[in-house]
UniProtKB/TrEMBL annotation:
Keyword flag Hydrolase: yes
GO function term, MF aspect, one: hydrolase activity
Transmembrane segments: none
UniProt keyword list: Hydrolase
Domain spans labelled AB hydrolase-1: 29-263
Database matches in InterPro entries: AB_hydrolase_1, AB_hydrolase_fold, AB_hydrolase_sf
PANTHER family found in the cross-reference section: HYDROLASE, PUTATIVE (AFU_ORTHOLOGUE AFUA_2G14860)-RELATED, MONOACYLGLYCEROL LIPASE
Keyword Hydrolase set for record: yes
Protein's UniProt name: Alpha/beta hydrolase
Length: 278
């Protein structure tokens, strides 16, 4: 777990992004997008499994994980959608399969619907995609981010750790929780970045694309943790009904962090979807 690293960098309009590619050259490309407040690390087990058959691209969004974080940085959904379109062009991927979790789902949807990013297929895992969204805690922090930024480091670390742990139904091993919270806890910039990404979260960025979902023409699979307390599975049924031909796979014994709670079940679901695209 300590040797997880993204070895490559790319300069984008929102800062330097760290990324990597796993698997065999020439394999069908699959791009994995993480959510908030996470990083590509959530995909570690799923990515390793997919890389046996596919060429897997991983990246940390600007302001997340090991990518650049700085004051005044634009880490909004609008910015991340543009950055993802830039990355696909940099990678010279014209129609990859895309797998996106949480906030990453909204990023992938915006890149496709607004920035004309073309995909072979799109798998959405517990995505932030439908209004209304944002828990009471999320809205409280978003309205008072400057106050929260001034929390003593120990209190901040405890808050972040508990928040991240609440996304898991199975429970996170201490070393996994450490890895997920480290980007937000290691220094003052990490603490500021945590509240910055919440402060810039705005439902209008999904409102702009939600009405376009019935016009999506590519194959879409929706996967959802049956025990998701962040975004209930009822939203999965609603989203699936809005996208023509979309399928829904409800993953048992998994919360919002499906890639970590049930990596084997999620990988099996994703592999079945990817094979249908061949």
């Amino acid at each position: 777990m300590t040797d997880w690293q993204l070895r490559k960098t790319f300069s984008t309009t929102s800062g330097t992004v760290r990324w990597d590619r796993w698997g065999q050259d020439g394999g069908e490309p699959v791009v994995l997008l993480h959510g908030t407040p996470f990083s590509s690390f959530v995909w570690r087990e799923v990515a390793q499994a997919l890389a046996r058959q596919y060429q897997v691209f991983l990246w940390d969004m600007p302001g997340y994980g090991t990518s650049e974080k700085h004051a005044g940085q634009d880490v909004s959904l609008d910015a991340q959608g543009r950055v993802f379109a830039e990355l696909l062009e940099r990678w010279e991927l014209t129609e990859p399969a895309v797998v996106a979790h949480d906030f990453g789902g909204a990023v992938a949807l915006r890149a496709h619907l607004l920035h004309k990013a073309a995909y072979r297929g799109l798998a959405l895992v517990d995505p932030v995609a439908l209004a209304p969204w944002g828990s009471p805690f999320f809205r409280l922090v978003g309205s008072n981010s400057e106050v929260f930024e001034q929390l003593p480091p120990a209190l901040h670390r405890a808050l972040v750790r508990e928040y991240v742990r609440s996304a898991s139904f199975a429970g996170l091993r201490p070393e996994v929780a450490d890895r997920l919270t480290a980007p937000w806890s290691d220094d003052e910039e990490g603490q500021a970045a945590f509240y910055r990404q919440i402060a810039q979260a705005d439902q209008r960025y999904t409102d702009e694309v939600q009405e376009l979902y019935p016009g999506i023409e590519l194959p879409v699979a929706v996967c959802w943790g049956a025990e998701d307390t962040w975004i209930p599975v009822s939203r999965g049924h609603e989203l699936t009904s809005l996208i023509p031909g979309a399928t829904l796979d409800v993953i048992p014994d998994a919360g919002h962090l499906v890639p970590l709670d049930a990596p084997a079940a999620l990988t099996a679901s994703l592999l079945a979807f990817l094979r249908r695209l061949s």
